[in-house]
């Protein structure tokens, strides 16, 4: 068993649309390498800076990412008896197997999967970020008292006009409908 700490450059394109690891960033790796019968078991943690934007208010944000991972890198000439037997024609297991190449292993695909899967899907600048005004786009955190007059639905505009005439004291001009006492049987 061996423990290693390494600082590596970002392989680039580690992220999603709204947040990710900058291409020029450095990633801190804490690794634990264990020799096992089939190969080398690599367990580690990656610490990386994140840059993106808040999904509620679109302000830039910076965060830290911590991603844990564990992967088996098999010896190329590992004993076939120690591998799980697969159905003939079933290459799925073979595709997912990572191999050591001259005592070296390529950690980039493992690191990429771990970091991207640990990213927040909806990053926010703060948990209680109110976002933007849906009508005018003003950032509500900068102007907490921001509001608009209530918009009138055009379908109710005629009734609003009627209500205003009643409020103005024009009740006498409103025709009254008499109820019909007769009912059909």
Briefly summarize what is shown.
By secondary structure, the chain is α+β, with helices and mostly antiparallel strands. The protein is 15% helix and 30% strand.
Characterization of this structure:
The chain is of the alpha+beta class and 185 residues long. The chain is 15% helix and 30% strand. The chain has helices at 92-96, 108-118, 157-167; strands at 2-9, 14-15, 19-21, 26-35, 39-53, 60-74, 98-99. The model has no long low-confidence stretch (mean pLDDT 83).
Strand tally is: 7
What is the end-to-end distance? 94 Å
Name the assembly state. Answer: single chain
The low-confidence runs, each spanning 5 or more residues with pLDDT under 50, are none
Average pLDDT reading:
83
Keywords:
185 residues, alpha+beta, seven-stranded mixed β-sheet, 3 helices
Structural topology:
Elements: E1 2-9, E2 14-15, E3 19-21, E4 26-35, E5 39-53, E6 60-74, H1 92-96, E7 98-99, H2 108-118, H3 157-167
């Amino acid at each position: 068993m061996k423990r290693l700490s390494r600082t590596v450059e970002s392989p680039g394109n580690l992220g999603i649309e709204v947040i990710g690891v900058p291409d020029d960033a450095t990633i801190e790796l804490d690794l634990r390498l264990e020799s096992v019968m089939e190969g080398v078991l690599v367990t580690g943690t990656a610490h990386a800076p994140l840059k993106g934007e808040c999904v509620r208010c679109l302000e830039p944000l910076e965060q830290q990412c911590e991603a844990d991972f564990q992967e088996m890198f098999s010896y190329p000439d590992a004993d076939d008896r120690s591998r799980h037997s697969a159905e003939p024609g079933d290459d799925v297991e073979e595709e997912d197997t990572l191999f050591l190449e001259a005592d070296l292993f390529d950690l980039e695909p493992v690191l990429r999967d771990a970091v991207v899967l640990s990213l927040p899907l909806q990053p926010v600048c703060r948990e209680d970020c109110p976002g933007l005004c849906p009508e005018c786009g003003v950032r509500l955190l900068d102007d907490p008292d921001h509001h608009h007059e209530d918009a009138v639905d055009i379908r109710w505009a005629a009734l609003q006009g009627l209500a205003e005439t009643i409020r103005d004291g024009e009740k006498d001009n409103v025709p009254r409908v008499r109820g019909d006492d007769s009912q059909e049987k």
